[in-house]
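Thread: zinc ion complex, take 2
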Amino acid sequence: MSALVFYLYSFLLFTTFIILGRYYLFLAIPSLVFSALVTSYVVLTRSKISLNVVASVLETDFREALEFTSSPFFIRYILISLSIIMSPYVLHRLMSLLKIAPLRKLQVRPLFILICLLTLTGFHHIDTSGNERRTINAAGINNYFPVREMITLKRILFEASWVINQYQNMSIPLDSEQNTGNDTSVILVIGEAARKSSMGLYGSKYDTTPYLSKLANESQENFVHMSQMVSASATTRVSVPSMISMSSAARFSDVAHYPSIYRMANTAGVETVYLASKAKNTFFESVINAIMQDNKVIIYNDNGSEYDGDVLDYLPEIINDGSSSQLITFQLAGSHYKYDARYPPSHDCFEPAIEEAFYLNSIRYTDFVLSRLAQNVNQTEKPYVIIYTSDHGEYVNDEGDGIFGHGFKQFVKNEVEVPLVFIFNDAFAKKYQELVDVVRLHSQIPVSHDNVSHTVLGLLGISDSKYYSSSYDITSEAFLEHERFIVDMNMKDVPIELYSFRQSPLSNSERTEIKLKPHCSG
Ligand SMILES: [Zn+2]
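Output below.
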């Protein structure tokens, strides 16, 4: 319905400007293009374009953008946009050929403008409903298309840079201290678009986590996985700050009023390292990047190598740098579209060659990267804990509409149900087995990204008078279940039980059967 409304709007606009004269046509073209881009999105996803979609696009980097342009979604998007842009022109040509062109302009102008306004009001009422309509009418013109969309765009462009500016200039007095005798190091592995339901460890029928599943079955003293973990949202730009800042995910601008775990670790004398399997430069500065600059050592893997595993080459030197306690953050490219660019050809394990199989390959490759990471920390006598989670899940053609990605429309559960696993190295398991048991005791309790920062600090023995809360720390005996929130695509926080997830997944029989290739099994 929205699509039709937008289309009629474009047509009307075009007609108005044709009547007003050809110079006004130049004014109509930007509106028409804008309208076509919005409409095309609605046609493809059956969902309105949101603040987070546009913001995510702006905060992407060059390689990511290039990969996205080759996706079937993007190609369809462009084709539909072009058709919409051209169609008013085609229609008008048709009308003049059939001699039903608009009447002479001087005669109709005042009446025509009135009709236009009335029609627009009608369109608007069809496009909105109930509460939305009431609030929009109360708020006036700012909430009408296309002013509404333009304000959203302005908000994205300026809000992020405003928050970043505030954050960088923030000086919060911190009294963070590390408990004497705590020698633990934490490696926080932030996965990308890895959903729980595609992981063997979490019951997927595909063998995508041979390493983690083996740990779960055979090395209980070294491994715990949380069974009910959700992300704060379905976009990186909201979820990652919620993990590494002491602010809750719910209000984006709060980030500028709370310290990151890195500032707290720095104050407490813990070494902070950021390893990123991605490029440093994005089109627009992101809040995540601004926070990550709090780390003492920062390494971006933008030297041309493309896989998460390559970043591990930096690890031995970092682990053996002589510091007694470290907080290492390793941000993966993980399972971000384009899936088949995320792993080396030797890790191509699923057939046939379709996107769904590529996605499984990327999950399996992350499992391999985690196994190598664990091998590295098992060679040291220092206690290490690897925490692996994902920034959000993924929509893998779940409704059979050919869409792959996250946060394009109202979420499905797969976009927020993510893994949270703890891998304890042998030195840690030997010294702190009671702590491993505490985590296991809590493993069935519902948790979210809001628990990550407190849990990291808890493991490092960092506490302070203001920000750390043991009731959010999964490793603490004082840990409690808290209400969990989902930040929706318009940045509104909703308790998870109240969020209405889309529920129309394809059944297994409607899906192409995927198999593990022989050279990968066993
Ligand atoms: Zn992400």
